[in-house]
Amino acid sequence: MRISELVERTGVPLATLKFYLREGLLPAGEATSATRAEYGEAHVRRIAVIRALTETVGLSVQKAREVLALIDRPEDDLFATLGRAIAALPPDVTPKSTQDHPRARAVLEKLGQVYDPGFVAVAQLEQALAAAESAGIPLDDARLAVYGPHIRAIAEFDVDSIPREATAAVEYAVLGTAVHEPVLIALRRLAHQDVAARRLGKKGPDPRASKRPPARGASSGRSRPKES
Amino acid sequence: MRISELVERTGVPLATLKFYLREGLLPAGEATSATRAEYGEAHVRRIAVIRALTETVGLSVQKAREVLALIDRPEDDLFATLGRAIAALPPDVTPKSTQDHPRARAVLEKLGQVYDPGFVAVAQLEQALAAAESAGIPLDDARLAVYGPHIRAIAEFDVDSIPREATAAVEYAVLGTAVHEPVLIALRRLAHQDVAARRLGKKGPDPRASKRPPARGASSGRSRPKES
DNA sequence: GGGGTTGGATACTCATGGTATCCAATGGTA
DNA sequence: TACCATTGGATACCATGAGTATCCAACCCC
What we know:
- Chain A has helices at residues 3-10, 14-23, 41-56, 61-72, 78-88, 102-111, 120-134, 141-160, 166-199, and strands at residues 30-33, 36-38.
- Chain A is mostly helical and 228 residues long.
- Helix content of chain A is 60%, strand content 3%.
- Chain A folds into two domains: 1-56; 57-199, no CATH class.
- The first copy, chain A, is elongated and about 65 Å long.
- Chain A has a two-stranded antiparallel ribbon with strand order 1-2.
- In chain A, a hairpin with a 2-residue loop joins β1 (30-33) and β2 (36-38).
- The first copy, chain A, is built from nine helices and two strands; from the N terminus they run ααββααααααα.
- The longest helix of chain A is centred in the last third of the chain and has 34 residues, at 166-199.
- At the A-B interface, α3, α5, α7, α8 and α9 of A face α3, α5, α6, α7 and α8 of B.
């Protein structure tokens, strides 16, 4: 298909597609002449991934390019590739990687995970812990004892669901890590609202008591208050 | 203390503090004369929160101001305030709020939570689900069955740990929601790496052996769920 | 064979998030 | 009391990022 059809199919403006082409996010179509190139379904999909990465995951064009490059030319080592992908994900961490990450180390030790300062995610965790601390809400042991196992269970499912085949595995792992984060965050926010509504005696026709009803399939509440 | 001391204490440049003052993120000090104002510990803390919100949580100055305003002048309704805070958190969602959110609705129904299109977080979830889908990794039932309960358990702990006292509750809830998100994300990334190392035979930047037994609740690695 | 796409290059715009200058009033110190 | 560095406040400036818009010349298809 021609580029104008890509515009129609994806809803992305022509100028923006040209920008993605320029920036190397979107591979060029197959040139059929000096002024014509042929694009395929792969381009449509790629554009959707670009938008997902930039708009929803919140990556800069630069970071999105790095992630896409990992998918396009996966290193043989899934583990290292995953590490590189994580380095491209927010929050950006200042490359003082040589330094010690005391909070992260303490947390990882409590979780029984290896502390390796070479992991970018360790620096990200350190930064997040420091931020929580300076906001006056440090991650105490009780909270960690809750967060740790639940997050680990999620991560185990994630890793188990990675396909075996090497190329697919990289793409699945990299995109899955990035793209499910906003889902988890949104689920937590909604759960907060749902739990808060039930616990804190919500106004409205839901005078349910403080005990949590079965989480799955147990609908029956309705009409939760809306914010603004 | 004078502003120069704030600079020392926080490490934030004077020009930047003036910028925060201008933008209304940081309240003015108590003026003692036309060219002198007194700042206190509260200002030091506020600056730390501003940095946490902008650098780690990734809020724009505009959004950070909204969140801080909620903390400074909490509405009487914790629930509504929390909703407003969530609306300031990324990802930014296009305000087509009237519209239907089919994916989010389906997910919430499966979780037994109420679907209320008025929640900003519902639109955020819809966007995240759509992004996952277009990246080729939709949230299938099996994954939801894992994510849902674990996230809910986390959310229940979060809500239970909100202090009773009204003013403190708002600050705690708002900052806690925002500031623990990067922690959870970092924990998941590290858990991915840890689980992957154990499952797939580790070869990271650190050749240290993985001597720990298969961690909690682990089923050994099969793979292949992928149903995209 | 001519008008409407293209590809490719270049230039421009807009919003953010700071920085830097300038100024005039201080006010602590000598 | 003189004086100069420090403030607050206002305004101007700058760098980056993410597109947008324009041009142009080569095409293609009708």
